[in-house]
Amino acid sequence: MAMALADSPPRVDSMSLDELAPDTPVEQERRTSYLELFFDLVFVFAVTQVATLLSDDASAGGFARGALVLFLVWWAWGGYAWLTNAIDIESLGVRVGFLAATAASFFMALAVPDAFGSGGAWFAVPFLVVRVLHIVLYVWGLRADPDHQAAIKHLAPWFLAAPVFVLVGGLVDDPARTWLWLTSVAVDVVGALNAGPGFRVSPSHFAERYALFVIIALGESIVAIGVGAAGVERDATFALAVAVAFAGVAALWWAYFDFTARAAERVLHDATPEQRGPLARDVFSYFHYPIVLGIVFFAVAAKKTLAHPADPLSDAGRAALGLGIAIFLTGFVLARYRALRRVACERGIAAVVALLLALLLDDVDALALLEIVVGVLIVATGIERTRLRELRARMRIA
User: Fold this and answer.
1) In terms of CB atoms within 10 Å, which of 96, 145, 246, 263 comes out highest?
2) 8 A C-beta contact, residue 156 and residue 104
3) What is d(CA 359, CA 274) in angstroms, rounded to the nearest whole number?
4) 48 and 159 in one domain?
5) In terms of domains, do 177 and 267 share one?
6) Boundary of a domain, candidates 172, 200, 228
């Protein structure tokens, strides 16, 4: 999960991150292996567990703690996305180590709902194992590539120190646990910012791995709709609530996969080898996190809406809905600006509008509020899509 330092963004003509045609030809690369997909299955469960943690503690502190745990889970998963992008995972030794990391990840996921309670150590110990195995497999897998191996060795002290803070935090009570885990996040982020040269990125495989994690988060939203619908009386209101909640998930999918997923891959392809590392770090490791967090928040809001569609959402439910859409769209704004120093206007405006509406319309029924906020996302995505189609048409004429 590391990368070379380079401040200048790659030039991708004059278009923004989402303005690249999704059918632009790209170089052929290997795709995600079945072993990686098996590893991802554990994180499907982990994301579901984070949503459970958020639902069980629907306070401002609960939301903050849920976001913190999700970042720890996200960073652990991301380390293996960088790992499998760099080494051959088909050898017996690497496969065994990878499966061991998968098992440790499962234990970590099991402990997520009680991570800030009595299950702190049950989360922290397997988390440490996952992170240590990541560095061991990374260094071992690059033994035939000394330059790349030197780059991960340069990062190793940071990435081995960070989980130690998580381990210590798991052995103490709050608020010390929260502060120690926040320190771990800071160590990881600062360490990645101080990565040395030598990291190389295979764009197609790398972009695909992160797109698959977005699918994992969207899948959690579908699960939340199903769970929220359990035990609810089947009538016209129920049908409409399910339809609107599903439309929200579909709109989130559209906003990411219509342009952004392939555009981000294209940006990596067009960058120089030296630029790819820091660009991948910022656009994917850093700025995909709010995209995933926003989806998880929306899942919580959808679940609460389906439980009582005709009643106003609680303060926590409205916060989850507004913050979910706003944080999701903010991730795109940050990614586009990092890549090309241009602002995603439609998405930025929609983020502010969605958040304000969710927070201010406190007397509106949950279903109506969900319709309004999802409508904001759909309208913003539609306006953006129309503008981009017109832009491409003008470029073809020119």
Assistant:
1) 263
2) no
3) 44
4) yes
5) no
6) 200
Is 7 a member of any domain? no
Alpha carbon distance 78, 206 (integer Å): 10
344: helix, strand or coil: coil
Q: Does pTM surpass 0.85?
A: yes
Residues 112 and 52 sit within 8 Å (Cβ to Cβ): yes
pLDDT digits (tens, 9 = 90+) for 148-204: 999 999 999 999 999 999 999 999 999 999 999 999 999 999 999 988 778 889 999
Tell the residue number behind the tokens 């120690």, with chain if given.
180
Sign (positive or negative) of CA dihedral 222, 223, 226, 231: negative
Alpha carbon distance 282, 333 (integer Å): 12
pLDDT digits (tens, 9 = 90+) for 204-228: 999 999 999 999 999 988 988 888 7
Residue in the block written with tokens 């790349």: 148
Per residue in 292-339, pLDDT (tens digit) is 999 999 999 999 999 889 999 999 999 999 999 999 999 999 998 998
Q: What distance in Å separates the CA atoms of residue 183 and residue 185, rounded to the nearest whole number?
A: 5
Give me 379's structure tokens.
Answer: 């309208």
User: Within a domain: residue 73?
Assistant: yes
Which of 200, 215, 232 is the C-terminal boundary of a domain?
200
